[in-house]
Amino acid sequence: EKLRKEIERQTSEAKHPITISLGVTSLEKTDQLPSDVIHRADAALYQSKREGRNRTTVFREVDA
Questions:
Q1: Burial code of 20-45, b = ≥16 C-beta within 10 A, e = fewer?
Q2: How far apart (Å, rounded) are the C-alpha atoms in residues 64 and 11?
Q3: 25: nearest Cα among 47, 53, 50
Q4: What is the pLDDT of residues 3-56, one digit of tens each?
């Protein structure tokens, strides 16, 4: 979130605001491949985008 806020304070050369959306996850003991971690971070990223962009979302496992 600190990174997102720092980038948000910047402006582009064309004087437009700069924003980013982030998806964050943790390495789990059950992860066997880098793609396991990337999949969760990607899911959190797209949740950020769906909820309005310029956000940081931490991946949370959904109960089945």
A1: ebbbebeeeeeeeeeeeeeebbeebb
A2: 42
A3: 47
A4: 999 999 998 999 998 999 999 999 999 999 999 999 999 999 999 999 988 999
Cα 59 from Cα 28, distance rounded (Å) = 12
Both tokens assigned to 46: 């797209």
State the DSSP code for 24.
Answer: E
Query: What pTM was computed for the model?
Result: 0.78
Phi, psi torsion values for 51, nearest 5 degrees = -90, 10
- Are 38 and 30 in contact, with CB atoms under 8 Å apart? no
Tell which residue, 26, 20, 28, 8, has the closest CA to residue 56. 20
